[in-house]
Amino acid sequence: MAASSSFSLSQALLSHSLPTHCSTQQHSDRLCLSGFNLSSISGTKPNKSTLRQISRAANPRRRVASRSTVKAAAVETLEKTDIAVVEKSINTIRFLAIDAVEKANSGHPGLPMGCAPMGHILYDEVMRYNPKNPYWFNRDRFVLSAGHGCMLQYALLHLAGYDSVLEEDLKSFRQWGSRTPGHPENFETPGIEVTTGPLGQGIANAVGLALAEKHLAARYNKPDNEIVDHYTYVILGDGCQMEGISNEACSLAAHWGLGKLIAFYDDNHISIDGDTEIAFTENVDKRFEGLGWHVIWVKNGNTGYDEIRAAIKEAKAVKDKPTLIKVTTTIGFGSPNKANSYSVHGSALGAKEVDATRKNLGWPYEPFHVPEDVKKHWSRHGSEGAALEAEWNAKFAEYEKKYKEEAAELKSLISGELPVGWETALPTYTPESPADATRNLSQQCLNALAKVLPGLLGGSADLASSNMTLLKMFGDFQKDTPEERNVRFGVREHGMGAICNGIALHCPGLIPYCATFFVFTDYMRAAIRISALCEAGVIYVMTHDSIGLGEDGPTHQPIEHLASFRAMPNILMLRPADGNETAGAYKVAILNRKRPSILALSRQKLSQLSGSSIEGVEKGGYIISDNSSGNKPDVILIGTGSELEIAAKAGDELRNGGKTVRVVSFVSWELFDEQTDAYKESVLPAAVTARVSIEAGSTFGWEKLVGSKGKAIGIDHFGASAPAGKIYKEFGITVEAVVEAAKAIC
Amino acid sequence: MAASSSFSLSQALLSHSLPTHCSTQQHSDRLCLSGFNLSSISGTKPNKSTLRQISRAANPRRRVASRSTVKAAAVETLEKTDIAVVEKSINTIRFLAIDAVEKANSGHPGLPMGCAPMGHILYDEVMRYNPKNPYWFNRDRFVLSAGHGCMLQYALLHLAGYDSVLEEDLKSFRQWGSRTPGHPENFETPGIEVTTGPLGQGIANAVGLALAEKHLAARYNKPDNEIVDHYTYVILGDGCQMEGISNEACSLAAHWGLGKLIAFYDDNHISIDGDTEIAFTENVDKRFEGLGWHVIWVKNGNTGYDEIRAAIKEAKAVKDKPTLIKVTTTIGFGSPNKANSYSVHGSALGAKEVDATRKNLGWPYEPFHVPEDVKKHWSRHGSEGAALEAEWNAKFAEYEKKYKEEAAELKSLISGELPVGWETALPTYTPESPADATRNLSQQCLNALAKVLPGLLGGSADLASSNMTLLKMFGDFQKDTPEERNVRFGVREHGMGAICNGIALHCPGLIPYCATFFVFTDYMRAAIRISALCEAGVIYVMTHDSIGLGEDGPTHQPIEHLASFRAMPNILMLRPADGNETAGAYKVAILNRKRPSILALSRQKLSQLSGSSIEGVEKGGYIISDNSSGNKPDVILIGTGSELEIAAKAGDELRNGGKTVRVVSFVSWELFDEQTDAYKESVLPAAVTARVSIEAGSTFGWEKLVGSKGKAIGIDHFGASAPAGKIYKEFGITVEAVVEAAKAIC
């Protein structure tokens, strides 16, 4: 696998450090992510003595030959840490947040001020990471689910020595082009794992990260070499707790026994509208115990550092359950007049209160100043992080020697490199192949791909047998069988989407898919949007994609959904029409690791069409049949998905009547938009204004393709409960309607 | 109020019995809903002796002079009920479900078979309703949150004597045009309170219904006359429990102390993918205790009728908490080979298994047969229901005599009739009025309307001070202050939307509004879609509607949201540009009681524009300025919301350069679509193809308005974190861009 690699670490880092979600940059060839320094593994043998030197520089008192020693050393360091430096460091975090928000005159100082102690302990004492390679594979993951408090994380990344958050970045907080946007964005700031801000997403992402770790550990760890081994930490607030998505994801986290997921609940009793008493009086501890979590309460999160440390220790000791550490804090701790009030949540303190807070906390420094002793204290993370990574690289080299095949596979997951020729596994079909529902054809693709793509895993929100998403050669990913690849999400669409975002962002080679009925994308739209924004190449397998589902009726029949996703940036909305197109849709989805894909698939059987192809799908829109010449048909019929067959039949009928007819499949608007003007003109010549489209969904947006002289056949009202054929007929989604519309304009 | 009423009960029933969500039928004048027989109240004095006769016919052994007597009688009846008839009735329910699903060869027999006992006890022994007036105001509400089991409810409505579900309706289950669609739909089937099927929605709707009852009871009940007094019952399944929305809504239900909400949790351990063990192993009881519910476990839901009865009695005795009755049942009870398996969940049993089930349960009857003794047993509900309503009408007459003002107000809430001249309360503005954010102007409207509309109540998902939704003259709706009208939803958008659907469907005069940032409609889209489908006129107050929110960045900046709602059927997407347009948007939203409205409002200040008007908004698109003649301007500039000001300024600049320019505000595409062709031509003449639109959102769909020769200025990628002005400039949402585009085409 390594032999076919053509990318270096520096390229990998470059690809990470640039925001790439703008449409012009979204190309499927940008797969060069790396979780570790490949050169140190695949090229020369790592030099153990060099490694030792690095680690000694980091901490001369300890050896780093084995992981467990490092862990012990970390605890040792922690115990010896001067309390004064800890307090100073915590106040540094607080004031970096205060100062940045003040300079921007925008932002959320309250959470960083309250959570600085747990933040400090995590990043300075507990977490294992390498600030100089934020993508080191085996790093502990940290997610700030309460993303509005991002200055906490920026301050921590700054102190820890990440190049992504320099002093100038703190000073340009929330400004145009900065690496410190208003909420944490993984695509802007190396060191940020996921994109948070919309509440509840982060804790669900963290569940996905922890799932990925447990899954990969189960698949690749050996009794003598636990090559995958990290924790996932998360801070969530009252807002995250109130959101339903967090309950969904946390129910699953306990069900799956994600013991290495440790969540800090910032219990500060304040949300934007005031005291949580006005809307949030449930017993969170009891709810989490009901969900199956281990729950610890740190009563003094403001200054009880040892309480926090002890809680983390206890959490790590509980291996079969995730742990919720409820940390009671004071929002805006240190601000004499605004602490413990909503006024410190989401706006700058104001010069006067900043002064008062400086006085109150005994902070004589200028804005953005990091005291020398704090700087010095944190400086060790550079060398320690390098040592941790080097140690792990050495461990990987050992692993590679002993477990060649597994190492190659794991490496491909870490790098995101796809096996050469993987796409040949995709099935192809001829017009003689039996008619089938695209949901079934999708299952054929999934099962074919799972054999060649070690990172493909996923499942459905309790509709596996309807969505046809089971991988037949694998069992269920469960607490005691985490090596398996069928994930059972239960009826939790929103949590499912966000968990898949976490899986996708764990390492580039993991390719999560998830499934439900297309209409229920409404339940998970916030997570899907974040897939698109944060460049998580999740594959959304959405079946029952129209009135074609029949009797379940309008609550289950999507109408506006295709249009609603075509309007969303950085996502591919694919609606294949038959077997070849379904295979093509999967090819596109697999290649697009930095944007999600939604596959809209039929419940009902569809014919295998003449002229359909994988290559066609890659162009978004293409001609499946044409009896005209000179790029000037009398009429162009455009269909998608289950209605392409209708367009094809109407084409035949019109041709029988003497017309020249082009039939175009429009499987993905986004892909077509990315083609050259010449190609577009070759498919939809400007001179041919007689165009009819047919799609069993909203006509909203179709004017772009059919023009003011064309006709869009679709459904601009809700569906109905009846057998599918009857609804198609009653709603006029028929061959006759296409023929009639075409005759009227050509 | 009654004097101004021009509608009768028969009209009211007619309006209910027709599906009205098709766009051609959605007119604001269709407000004629009635919750009680107005003629018996507002006209002649009710004749007590007649009432007594009706009630005696129903049950000669008891008097109905007071409500409590009826209740006691009901219990008495229940105690005397022959167990054999109960069992036969329960099996009737089971077989009506089996037979209907079998005939349709589609549907979900499992739940009705398992829940028939609790269904029977609720509809036959516990609930207070009048089958001949499904809209009687003081009826107990029942919600089948597990909507796929709708045959349970259809069977119950049929037995209870509702005209909406006759034998022929059961026989046309899931067929075109039937009143028994695949999931319960309030707009199709009188007797169905809300539209369910998408899981978790129903329990949240039920929370809204119970909130409405508690609120109205607090406002209108008197120590001597508790005129508002009913329970809300709901059946939810494992699927509902897994969905995050149910946790959100149930957390609020306990917070609000909704003691008259009684939820049956059908604990059958089976979901579509198999045993709930594969994805749902949390302790639901403990979670609900954590949420603050009273929890009861009925261990034998299959035959433990007295257990179920006792649980309901206990639930009613707990007045300060909602109650969850966990009823352990066997899905598909009675089917010898399919019970307790997923195979009975969602498909017909098949002829062989139907036979086996008939044998197993000793059911010798033909399909759809209701045995005579069962028929006779249920027949009393017609007269009893009439008596209940008549008794309540008498009570209302007493109430009206003593509390004239309150009675008039309550009557208007029950009928949905708006006070004459209410719209004059809306504020108006001149170009000289100070610039302001439309979110602030929205608050002025809300506060003005709350004074004249007794049914207006609502709130925000923890963003009241950002969404500007507080009604200043009212306090918070809370457990101990349920008469107040500011609802604090916490950070629970999805639950909020579905709760508002419940409030809206409780009685036509309640007008719920709810608020969050526009981008977070993604969290609640499933609830919004159901507002549209089920004709709930909820007002969605969605602020921070574009990149204009600035520093919070792309996670918070809507891009595709306007397009995504323009594509959704039966919803009004309104984006007002200034004070007059905001007032106009509220006028439209209040008048549209059968379709929801979304108001997209700015965070940033906007000028009051010359030419804007309430009347203009009502037409959806209208001219705000024009220096052309003969309906032939050189160019048409189209703007919405915050960008209308940009279009207006560009218009001025182009006019200074000698062009004739029309500036059009396009506040609602849906309303414009409903205008006459002549009006449309007067605003957007076909001959003028030089058109430029500007909107700080996706251009998807704008081709319809600007045509292939025009230009749509918008944003087709994600936003950015920076001050708003900077983002507008960098993204080219500027006067200069409009002027340049216009010059290029005219």
Automatic annotation (TrEMBL), chains A, B:
Residues the record annotates as the site (Important for catalytic activity) are 108, 345
Q: Which cofactor does it need?
A: Co(2+); thiamine diphosphate; Mg(2+)
State the protein's name: transketolase
Q: Which residues bind Mg(2+)?
A: 238, 268, 270
Question: EC number(s) in its UniProt entry?
Answer: 2.2.1.1
Q: Which SUPFAM superfamilies match?
A: Thiamin diphosphate-binding fold (THDP-binding), TK C-terminal domain-like
A Gene Ontology cellular component where this protein is annotated is: chloroplast
Under the subunit heading, UniProt states: Homodimer.
- State whether keyword Magnesium applies: yes
The residues that hold thiamine diphosphate are 148, 197-199, 239, 268, 345, 520
